[in-house]
Amino acid sequence: MSVGPSSSGDPPKTGRIPFVSSITFRRLAIASLVAICLIVLTGAAVRLTGSGLGCPDWPSCYQRQVTPQLSFHPLVEFSNRLVTVALTVLIAVTFLAALRRRPLRSDLVWLTVGLLAGVFAQAAIGALAVYTKLNPYVVLLHFLASMVLVATAVVLVHRSDRRYEKGSAMPLVPPGILIGARAVAGLLGLVLIAGSFTTGAGPHAGSSDGQLAARRIPVALRDMAELHSSLAVLLVGATLGLVVALHAMAVPERVRRAGRLLCGVLVLQAAVGYAQYFTHLPAALVEVHVLGATVLVVGMTQFLLAMTDHPMEADVPTRTPSTDDARTGGAPRVQVGG
Length: 338
Fold this sequence. Notes:
Structural class: mainly alpha
Number of strands: 2
Strand content: under 5%
Distance between the termini: 5 Å
């Protein structure tokens, strides 16, 4: 006979907003990361299908009409906006869950605040891109801001693990390796910036026939592509050297595994990059390259995070005093039978 609370592990509901367990919050964090990656891919699809001006106004598709016409480009652009709305709702729910999570963690709250602010900033940049008729500098800023959101979401997922306790990081690698890894991450940032400028100089402006042609960055595509590829080769070489050094040291296997995965993604991404350039930038391969860049940011962030360890988070009861507690003087109830 059970005379105590349920042992299912889920926190009891109190008031209108229940407390949130660490497991539930982690699931929301993972969902947020997946949704942010999805919005990157749908945004790239808008550009590569020439649907960037399918809805010439914002936030409505047209000045006096919210929904698009039943034609390809407006539907593609408006669908991306709907995905953005869904993402915003999900991030807002994750923020509220961070406030109700037990044990409460200020770092998780601030990370969700950063994601929420980033999503609103992205919406503003997207509106600016529409009103500037797909200015290439605004469009590349839109992509780079998305990469920052992806990295932030990866950190949120990592910290939502109960192994993480704020302010108690323990390095798992020598200081020189950690500095080298951060330098490699900075080099990845340069590669992404150069790649964005390469796309801005390329043929995929985001507009289509019958629309106002979006202008391009006034630099030779070949020159930007060579700069981008040179930085990418340097990134691959530096990362390989770092991972080889890790395998020669006494470091945890999880650090080595994260390094191997990162190297694998880098090599595949480089192969796709060269393939798309020599096949004259087909839209499908460019979309795959955008997917690769997103996965690369995830892999690099995880590689950095794998280099530190944290103790298990202490359990904090998620239940609040109930009416029965008041009658029993607050003494905890126990299960005394089957």
